[in-house]
Design goal:
Number of strands: 11
Shape: globular
Radius of gyration: 13 Å
Strand content: over 45%
Number of helices: 0
Structural class: mainly beta
Helix content: under 10%
Length: 114
């Protein structure tokens, strides 16, 4: 059972990144999924949520209108498209499977800086 994030990196303010989360070891299509982030010295923050089918999404106010969460159940993959990035978006980003036995990936670093 594994979640593996990728796609992080260094980007200038105003730029874009697309994060991916590859899932294995469980039936991906039966779980809603989350993206969280944790900035240095701050608590982990829920960024976005997507329903099992992808028909429903929710976002933190801080990223609404700039980030888009999506999923491809056929590819067992979760995505986070991040546009108009700001320095305050700098954090480690995690995909997460909620539930009684929650599951976290190892995280991918996103740094927004000029």
């Amino acid at each position: 059972v594994q979640l593996e994030e990728s796609g992080g990196g260094l980007v200038q303010p105003g730029g874009s990144l697309r994060l991916s989360c590859a899932v294995s070891g469980f039936t991906f299509r039966t779980y809603a999924m989350h993206w969280y982030r944790q900035a240095p010295g701050k608590e982990r923050e829920l960024v976005a949520t997507i329903s099992m089918t992808g028909s429903s999404t929710n976002y933190a106010d801080s990223v609404k209108g700039r980030f888009t969460i999506s999923r491809d159940n056929a590819k067992n993959s979760l995505y986070l498209q991040m546009n108009s990035l700001k320095p305050e978006d700098t954090a480690v980003y995690y995909c997460m499977r909620p539930g009684y036995h929650s599951l976290w990936g190892q995280g991918t670093q996103v740094t927004v800086s000029s």
